[in-house]
Amino acid sequence: MIKRTGLWPVLFLCVAFLPSARAGSSADLPAISIIIDDMGKRLESGRRVLALPGPVACAFLPRARHTDYLARQAHTAGREILLHLPMDSVDGRRLDAGAVTLDMTEKQFAATVAADLGAVPYVTGINNHMGSLLTRHPGHMLWLMRAMQQQAGLFFVDSRTTVATVAKRVAMENAVPSTERNVFLDNELGADAIAFQFERLLALARKQGTALAIGHPHPQTLAFLEQQLPQLGQRGFRLLPVRDLIELQQQGENTWQASWSPSHRGVKN
């Protein structure tokens, strides 16, 4: 027989802090999204991306050889499809076809974005390819958001190729649903380096509630994701489409009430 003195307060505290059914639901798990950039250049690696488990998003270069075919295959497979929009970078590297540049007029800029969107079937969003020069210019980012508003329902992901970017801020100011990259998975292609960045992604999601990573269709990256993505649920994480992640951030439904401050080291350009 349990006496009231001594053990009852302890039992009450134990019951009070038992996790509820809601707390144990998948909706309360920290969430990540993953985008694979540079899609459309190579057929076999593109097919391998489409075979990855879970809603991994695909960002297609607008004029790449296999973009049309792979984007249609991605749509059939239920993948999210982004235009991976080439933009001017500070190092002046050669731009992919369909790029927007600093010396364009607004009319030229808008026409290029419209043509690029038309070249990617079933496109639902845009993220920048390179762009460490262009994304720091508020005027050009305003042109981009205006061009996106001509096609309803598009979202924008700031790849954060420079800490000076204003792209996400301008998107928010113009009511374009948006988020930003937290981690590049494969700036370094060693297995240990990719694993380190993936663990950074999970740590940020655990701390903030959500986090987004960008990777590329490198064999090393795909091999790692093929192994790790099936284990996410067991590790206490969920993989979401990018649009769902944006909605989660905007609505404040995650327990952590994430505060989205500019980060992070290791920018691409």
Task: Describe the 3D structure.
- The chain is of the alpha/beta class and 269 residues long.
- It has a single domain (28-251), classed as Glycoside hydrolase/deacetylase (TIM Barrel, Alpha-Beta Barrel).
- The chain contains ten helices and nine strands.
- It has helices spanning 7-16, 43-50, 67-76, 106-119, 138-149, 167-173, 191-208, 219-228, 232-235, 242-251; strands spanning 31-39, 57-60, 81-87, 125-130, 155-158, 178-180, 183-184, 210-215, 238-239.
- Strands 1, 2, 3, 4, 5, 6, 7, 8 and 9 form a nine-stranded parallel sheet that branches.
- Helix 4 (106-119) packs across helix 5 (138-149).
- It is globular and about 50 Å long.
- It starts with 6 loop residues before the first helix and ends in an 18-residue tail after the last helix.
- Mean pLDDT is 88; it is low at 1-23 and 253-269.
Task: Summarize the structure in short.
With 269 residues, the chain is α/β, with parallel strands linked by helices. The chain has ten helices and nine strands. It has a single domain, classed as TIM Barrel, CATH 3.20.20.
**Percent helix range:** 25-40%
Proportion in β-strands: 15-25%
CATH topology: TIM Barrel
**Computed Rg:** 21 Å
CATH class descriptor: Alpha Beta
- Give the termini distance in whole angstroms: 70 Å
- The coarse overall form would be globular
DSSP strand count: 9
Helix run count: 10
Poorly predicted parts: 1-23, 253-269
Biggest pleated-sheet summary: 9 strands, parallel
